[in-house]
Amino acid sequence: MLGTDPWNKAASSSFQNLVAKVTPLCGSDPELPTDLTNAVKRRNYLAHSFWYDKAPEMMADGPRGLLIAELADDIDTFYILNDRVAVAVVNPGMEALGASIEASEALYEKLLRDAQQTD
User: pTM of the prediction?
Assistant: First the structure.
């Protein structure tokens, strides 16, 4: 269909595929798949339509502040979802493979420090 955004369709499909793959592993957090699906929809809206829809509001100080607060809430939501995926899926998977979560976190911190030192 000519009115379909192919980028939005492809992004939705690929992210929804990830959600579908994670869903069977979310037993400890049964709401997680629904929340991830909603996050995919929000991500797609932010990436493809938000600025077109909200352009007039960006021109005035009051509405602009509300938009910034809305985006800050999105940041919080995405960080919280990331943590929930780690608790429900990543950490149990690592433990099942015999990988230490503490060692993984230490490696992450080292890589982060190394990356910051190269700036």
Answer: 0.74
